[in-house]
Amino acid sequence: xxxxxxxxxxxxxxxxxxxxxxxxxxxxxxxxxxxxxxxxxxxxxxxxxxxxxxxxxxxxxxxxxxxxxxxxxxxxxxxxxxxxxxxxxxxxxxxxxxxxxxxxxxxxxxxxxxxxxxxxxxxxxxxxxxxxxxxxxxxxxxxxxxxxxxxxxxxxxxxxxxxxxxxxxxxxxxxxxxxxxxxxxxxxxxxxxxxxxxxxxxxxxxxxxxxxxxxxxxxxxxxxxxxxxxxxxxxxxxxxxxxxxxxxxxxxxxxxxxxxxxxx
Length: 264
Description:
Layout: H1 2-130, H2 134-182, E1 185-192, E2 197-200, E3 213-218, E4 221-231, E5 236-240, E6 256-258
Helix pairs in contact: 1-2
């Protein structure tokens, strides 16, 4: 009986040892699998974070492209309006020039007729020298007087036409100046709050003149007004008009400056 118990004890110990070994191997394998799973989870998490970052960059790029596209469309619309305005000015100038040319041609024809009449008169006077007829001489003098009056009228008409041409040219120049002033726009390059002035990226090449007042805007929001004090070819300096700033706002670099509509 003791021998059987000893054998049973040895067998039980052997089985226990085998089970312990199996459990140890299973535990090691489980730990290994857990470490592998944690590594895969970390890699998946990092990949997800990278994907989210790329998605954010893509959304930012789409927003920037949309903004640039809207700005480009606005610029194209502005350029189209400018071209249409210039074409209208050109057509008006052509019409006015054609009118002036027609009037000049008429005056040239009248002057040619006057010269012809003068030549005829000279011939008649030459004939009268050889034919001392008092009545014909008086008629010739009257004719000469009439031709002189006609010449004076034609001269006056020619001068009037020249004046009209000058007036039309002045009106066209003024209209172009007003159109240029209405189209003026620029940006704030720098702001000096201590001395209350700003630097603009537009100058006399863009139609800026001293004492011109400009609106300062940020998008569709009106910020205030500035007055030009110094003008260079491609830049200018302007004082911030006291009391023109909207409460709670201040002029910043990058803000727009535009002119209000100038009536013609």
